[in-house]
Amino acid sequence: MQDGGDIMDEEIVCTGFFRASEEDTISCLDQFEMGGSAQYVLGNLLEAPYNIGAALLNTDQWLAWLPYINGNMPDAEVKQSLMRFIYYGASAELFFVVFALFLAVTIIGMVFNRFMWGCVRGLEGFANIVGRTFAWAGLLMVLQQIVIIFMQRVFAVSEISIGFGMTITHDVSWWSEELKFYNAMIVCMCAAYTFVQGSHVRVDLIYSAVSFRTKRAIDMFGSIVFMVPAALLTWLYGWFFLWRHLVVPNPSASDSLERLLTKARALRWNVETIGFSPNGFNAYFMFKVLLVSFTLMVLLQAIAFFYRSYLEFKEGEESEGKYLDKDDLGDPQAELVAEIH
Description:
61% helix, two-stranded antiparallel sheet, 4% strand, single chain, mainly alpha, two-stranded antiparallel ribbon
């Protein structure tokens, strides 16, 4: 690739993180992928290990922008690395890399069940840690609301300063609108944790009346057919929704990599700071970050739920709830209510 942001003269149409020269534009694998849907899927799966290796060995081509977060990007190479990151973050190449890793882990786990149980414990443990941490935002939200009401009604102040050593001062309306962000944190970052704890409300038509293994089969089907596609679609929407509020020119889901690299010539940070009111909360781009984070947490939990359902289906009723780290509510009646839900 030439300096100054020009796309290299050797035109590229093959897939993958790093492209071939003009003489090698269409490889045998590319031709194979053009043979139909089955060939397309198989070809991309075969290409996934190469893409993983190429990405890990050439991190400067898609992570060179990190030292310049919210700062001026000095040259074309840095700008192009950010555009590559944006493009591949919701690309077919990334999907097949993740899909290939999922297949590999699943096959190994089906042969070595202890390994799959380890994956379940790791993924559920991660969801529990994240959820239990962000659940404290509920207490913070209540305390901040009390402070706002007290300061506004008793002292009639227009601004509130919070901090130790370095204070943060904003209009009262800013702190009031920020409460929405705390609520969004709880919803997005605690959804997977709530799922692990079995606290989501279910509408049950046939589930309670079927056998144990039929329930596990339904769970496996639901995690793959409903949870995973919903998470992937939300990711595809949320990824570009996020970046359209962070940089200009705005990237689009329909843009090719070549098109995005061309846009990189004028690329600069343009972080959204517009609030609903003149002095209101002005970090609404954080809601887009939460949307992407929520999608990732749900996707990981769908995989964990599929693995747990498979293992419980295979091992029988004695494995139900195995290694499950559920919260102790400390109240028999509360535990009963939680079990019913």
